[in-house]
Amino acid sequence: MASIEWPEGMDERMRALVSLDIQRNAILLSAIESSVQTVREDVQQAQAANMKMFNAMRDDLTDLRTETRAGLKQVNDGLQQLGGGLQQLDDKLDLVLSKLG
User: Fold this and answer.
1) What is the three-class DSSP state of 63?
2) How far apart are CA 44 and CA 63, in angstroms?
């Protein structure tokens, strides 16, 4: 610890109290620095966990989009087949009705 030039006339008791205050403040500062470092590490861990979570969510959304597109294509293909089948039915009904009519 650095040496302090005490003013003349300051008695030993006052010097001891000031010295004790300096020591206490150094201990408090050390504890604060340790706490700040712990908080910094906790924040870094939380950021890393959040990044993993966001990456997993992005992957899930990409998979969902791919599956949704494939499902919609199947629905579209099915509707087109249904439309073709309905057209054939309509044509046959027209033929039957023209023969009856």
Assistant:
1) helix
2) 29
